[in-house]
Every structure is written in structure tokens, then in C-alpha cells.
Amino acid sequence: MAGRVRTARLHAALTYANLAPFVFFALFPFYFMFVTSFKRNAELYSLKSVPFWIQTGVITDHYAYLFQRTEFLTWMKNSLIISVLATSISLAIAILAGYSLARLRYRGVGSFGTAVFISYLVPPTLLFLPLSQVVNWLGLSDSIWALVVTYPTFLVPFSTWLLMGYFRTVPREVEECALVDGASRVQTLFRIVLPMAVPGLVCAALFGFTLCWNEFIYALTFVSQSGNKTAVVGVTADLIRGDIYYWGSLMAGAVLASVPIVVIYVWFLDYYVSGLTAGAVKG
Amino acid sequence: MAVGQRAIEAAGLRHAPGRLERLRQWWEQEDVFGYGLILPALVLLTCLVAYPFGMAIYFSLSDYWVGSPGQFVGLANYREVLGNDVFRQTVQNSFVFTGIALTLKTVLGVWLAVLLARDIRFRRVLRGAVLLPWVIPTALSTLGWWWMFDSLYSVVNWTAIRLGIMSAPGPNWLGQSSYAMAAVIVVNIWRGLPFFAITVLAGLMSIPREFYEAAEVDGATSRQRFWHVTLPLLKPVLAVVILFSTIFTFSDFNIVQVLTRGGPVNSTHLFATLAYQIGLQGGNLGQGAAISLFLFPMLAMVVFLQLRYIRKD
Known about the structure:
The complex is a heterodimer of chains A (283) and B (313). Chain A has 283 residues and is an all-alpha fold. Chain A has 15 helices and no strands. Chain A has helices at 2-36, 41-44, 61-69, 72-103, 109-121, 124-137, 144-150, 152-168, 172-180, 185-196, 198-214, 217-222, 231-238, 247-267, 269-282. Chain B is mainly alpha-helical and 313 residues long. Chain B folds into two domains: 2-60, no CATH class; 76-312, Orthogonal Bundle (MetI-like fold), CATH 1.10.3720. The interface between A and B is large, with 96 and 107 residues.
């Protein structure tokens, strides 16, 4: 008996020992960015100091620099507006499309589903050049609206695909009962099906927001005026100054611009895990 | 559904069918409603995915520069691109980058998933920690890696030198071709591994316990159980994950753009970063479009395999 307990303990210890390098690999860059953002320049650029912790005192100058000397707050505000708007628009379109593809029978439904799936796989890097011209023609270039309009191109296919899986889990009988009772199709969708697919909606909204906030190539390509940039592009492109002593503020910007995502992530961890697997595997 | 329609038709018969009522009846038909709901998505995808895709093809066949609509030049852009040494280097880079990163992500991802599937404490926290690199904006975390690979203050070199693995000053990670390629691959693995691990983990959890119990009764060792039970049953999940990752690794932009901008001497350029440099920064939209369209064969292959796989499912 004691022997079995011991082997079980040994087994667990082995598992932790094997997991440790993975967890270290995953988290160390974040830890290092965080530590860097609070270090004095003299310590950052000294070959004698130990890089792993702060030896000469914690300072917040790098953060103060962001707020006082850069447009960091504007970038954050832009990111927030773009992400909320693009996610809401895409979710509205995806709810309708997802329900239509998952539940209704009509000619061509299969090929529409395939079309949505194919556009889900098209990488943004394939389309950014012509899209920059489309944005130009629409008169939206160099504004946050360029991104509000183009982000749905990857959000709608993704959310539609995700929601289709959730809509399929709603029992058909419930819907049919509602229709028999004289509810219209629109009422059935909004009063019966949607409330039962709330976890899917939360998941699609979370992923949508994250994808928008993190998006890089469109935001880099379509917007060049500093005041219209998103947080990710602003920090990546505008914080690098002529001299080499910018790492503190650069890391401070990267940490702060990630905070909204980290907060949402910690709060809704299980949704991320289930959404990731639903999006890729069940699709 | 049929019952519902009959009920509505019956309701329609009771009232004299006014124009509004007829419209309502028309709208309540399953196919009309279905087309109506899918319409916004189709309009969006037609205007902002299919149309730009067509434009990309047109650009690639013209001498289109930023600000000057070009003329049709046939396959000149493709000929020029294929004869270009930088482009050939890019093709080679893309295959090296994708091949190595994908292999390591698959192997490490399965290993990590197996570890995370074990019945241990702090499982949820561990999963959350491991998934983090996938959630944080890649461009921002790559900035952190950039600092970690700094030519003078690299923490990687500092540690390796102290541990006696490297002799001072250690490699200039982003300044030497093969090291720079290694660096972008490491960051890609770092960022993509969670996706593999968590998806494979979901696949592992769906394998019925009885399979393992039966194998154990038959006297299979844990290694045999992995090779003969786990791996074959994981195949469908693995296939989907690998296909997904192929297209997104092959078309990667963020990591290379932030870490090396394709350098040193084009040794880490991928299709997307080269297309950005030539099409946008250089203003040669025609050639840029031709370069990014080289992503298409890979995309087509993945779509084909995915659709075949899904249809079989």
C-alpha cells in the first residue's frame, strides 16, 4: 500500500518535472518584459548586473514616459473602439449566417458553408495589398474605420464557424415546438435558440475581441498617422527612438497594451480553452 | 419544420391575406429565411475577400504601382520574381521555417498535451499558463523576444555564458543568418505550441478510458499504449491541427516583421514580409501581389485536404 502511494507520488513529481521547462518557456518572456519595464536605464544597460531581477530599485519612469510623452492612451482608446465595434458587427452577421448554415435547409447551403470555411482559412497576409487599395477607394485609409471595416473579413468566418457548432447543440424539437406555437422564425431564433447558445456567443465575442486587439498586419498597413494607430502597432512602430535606450519604455508599452487581454483571459480562461478546441477540431 | 409551416399557412388562411401578411408568409419560408440570414455574410465576404482576391490576381498581372494604375503586363511580374535571388531565398526560408517549426510544434505539442492530460493538481492553472503565449498580442511579445536576443544585453547569452554553455560574447542572434532563422523559429514555436497542446489535449480527453484499460490488461507498457492506442486515435485531430498550422506558419508575418524585418541579408524573409517590403514600402503593388499569391498553392492544398477530411468525417 505504502509502495503504491510512493509510486503515485513519484509519478506526479515526474510529471511536474517534465512540465516545468514548458511552463518556464511559456512564461519567462512575460516575466522578463515585466521586470525590464521597471528597471533603471543604468541597470538595464550594464553588463555587470544580473538581468533576472531588479537590483537598483523599482522605477515607474518608463510608464510615466508612455503617458506624458507618447500617444499611448489614444492608441489604447483606438484599439478599444475598433475591437468593440468590429466584434459587435461581426457577431451580428455571424449569428445570422451561423444559424442559417447550421439549421435551415435550402439549395446551396452546403456550398455557402464551404465558402465560409475557405475564407476562414485565407490568411490576412494574402489579401493585405489589394485590401489597402479597397480601403483607399472607400475613402477610409488612415482612419480607424479602415480597420472596423476590414476586421470582419476574418472575424465573420471564424465566428460563424464557431457558432454553427453551438447552434447544432440546441435540440431541434425545441425550435419546432416554438414554430408550432405560432412563433415566427425570427422570434424562434432570438427568443429560443440564442439564449440556449449563450456560451457560444460569449466565446465568439471573447475570441473576436482578442483577434482584433492583437491584429498586426492590417493595422500596420492601413493606418500611418500616429493618432489613429492601435495599441499594438503604436507600441511596435512608434516607441522605437533614434537612440538605443528605449527598451524600458518599449517593454512598459508592451506590458500595458497586453493588460486588457490578460484580464479578459484570466476571467474567462475556460471559454478560451473550449473555443480554441471547438474552432479548430469540431470545425 | 413542415408542421410549423402548415400552422402558419393555416393562420394565413383565417385572415384575408393582405400585402403585409403575404410578405410575412414569404419571409417565413425556410429557404427565403435561410438566404436572407446568410446574405450579409455573403455580401461581406464577396466584397472584402473574394473581390480583393481577384484584385490581387489582377495586380500581379499588371505593372501597378502605388498611385498609378498600371497596364496589363501578363506574367512579367512572375517571371521577374522567379528570377530574383531574394525571392528564391524567401522560398527556401519559408520551407525551412515552416518545416522545422511545424515538426517541433507537433512533437512538443503532443508531449505537452500528454503531460497536461495527467491527473495532477493545479491542472487548470498549468493549462492557463501554457496557453498564454497564444493569447497575448504576438507583435508585443515578439518585442520581448527581440530584447532577449539583443546583440549586447541578450539574457539568453548572459545565462548560457554563466552556465558555461557558450563562450563570451555568444552569438549575435539577430545579426547572423542561421542564428536569426533559429530565433524566428523559436519564437514561432513558443507562440504556436499552446495551440497544438490544447487542441491535442482535447483530442486526448475524448479517447475512452476503456481503450487504455484493455491495453493494460493485455500487458502493454505505457510506451506501447502511447504508440498503439493514443497516437492512432489522435490522428484525425493531429491532421486538422497540422493543416491549420501549416497555412498559418507559412503565411506568418508578425514575428519576422518585428524581430528581423526579413534580415540579416534577407535570410529570414517569408512571403508575407517580402510582399510587404516590395509591395508597400517599395510601392510595387504588382510584384508584391505576385509574391503574396505564392501563398495560394499552399492554401489551396490545405483547403483541399481539409474539405476531403471533413467530408469523410
